[in-house]
Amino acid sequence: MPNFSTLLTKDNITAVAIGHFDGIHKGHKELLKHLGEYGGLVVIDKNFANITPRLKRAEYSNYPCFLYEFEDIKSLSGYDFIKLLKKDFKHLNKIVVGFDFRFGKDRAWNRYDLKDMFDGEVVIVDEYCFDGIGVHSSIIRELIKKGSIQRANMFLGREYSIEGEVISGQGIGSKKLVATLNLRDLGYVLPSDGVYATKTKIGNKIFGSVTFIGDRLSTDGKFSLETHIIDEMIEHAPKKVSVCFISKLRNNIKFESLEELKKAIQEDINNARIISLACKLSL
């Protein structure tokens, strides 16, 4: 783990792991084990990361992240890429990569070339498998899109979490149904339409919650991402919250009346309350 008593910068880091690192999942954490206390992540960012966008990777890895925009380095040869790393990290003596690592223009150089070209230690980490399946961001992304949240969480090693800005809703929730925080997501891949047992983090507090994603079929038909805080009254809406998904409760359904919808929402709340109480959240 990094040395939190020391500010880790390019000037004192001695080991880096290189990759995209979207998700910081169980496979990535096998690489992190080799970094030591003066380690950091070299993140090759193509601006499509939507499990852990941008510097959210640092939050889940507990290591500083240094973003290298893919467009800025894609024309570099393998030799020039290594030269750039050694220039940026003056005390670099270890590079950690995955089994399928390729680098340089047109991905022409591989992990074995890295061993020949870098004069320090090179650690190549084997593919990490869970339940007989290789753990990769692409698989986790598809599981999330399908609403297979529990499975995705197993691959991540934590609950899938998104951040959202609180915005104005349609205005009937608190009056005729239940009060919700309506959200605009900040660039994350969203689970499939439906209702989910979740936990919502507001500031430093975590609350049990039930979250809806999808078109409001029973009211105005517009898309909505909204979360209801269970057994709590939120007097002042925050500017931003984090929603952590535990499991899917049901698909999105059209109800014939607001009374039917309200009854279903209450059942969702009861189910989510039980699930969220049993969940030992690992943010």
TrEMBL record:
Say if the entry is tagged with keyword Transferase: yes
Q: Which InterPro entries match?
A: FAD_synthase, Riboflavin_kinase, Riboflavin_kinase_bac, Riboflavin_kinase_bac/euk, Riboflavin_kinase_dom_sf, Rossmann-like_a/b/a_fold
Pfam families referenced in this protein's UniProt entry, alphabetically: FAD_syn, Flavokinase
The record's keywords, sorted A to Z, are: ATP-binding, FAD, Flavoprotein, FMN, Kinase, Multifunctional enzyme, Nucleotide-binding, Nucleotidyltransferase, Transferase
Q: What does this protein do?
A: Catalyzes the phosphorylation of riboflavin to FMN followed by the adenylation of FMN to FAD.
PANTHER family reported in the protein's UniProt record: RIBOFLAVIN KINASE (PTHR22749:SF6), RIBOFLAVIN KINASE/FMN ADENYLYLTRANSFERASE (PTHR22749)
Task: Kindly indicate whether the keyword Transferase belongs to this entry.
Answer: yes
**Reactions this protein catalyses:** FMN + ATP + H(+) = FAD + diphosphate; riboflavin + ATP = FMN + ADP + H(+)
Q: Which GO terms describe its molecular function?
A: ATP binding; FMN adenylyltransferase activity; riboflavin kinase activity
What positions belong to coiled-coil segments?
none
Per its record, how is this protein called by name?
A: Riboflavin biosynthesis protein
Enzyme category, top tier: transferase
Recorded hits in Gene3D superfamilies, A to Z, give: HUPs, Riboflavin kinase-like
Query: In which organism is this protein found?
Result: Campylobacter pinnipediorum subsp. caledonicus
Tell me where on the tree of life, at the top rank, the source sits: Bacteria
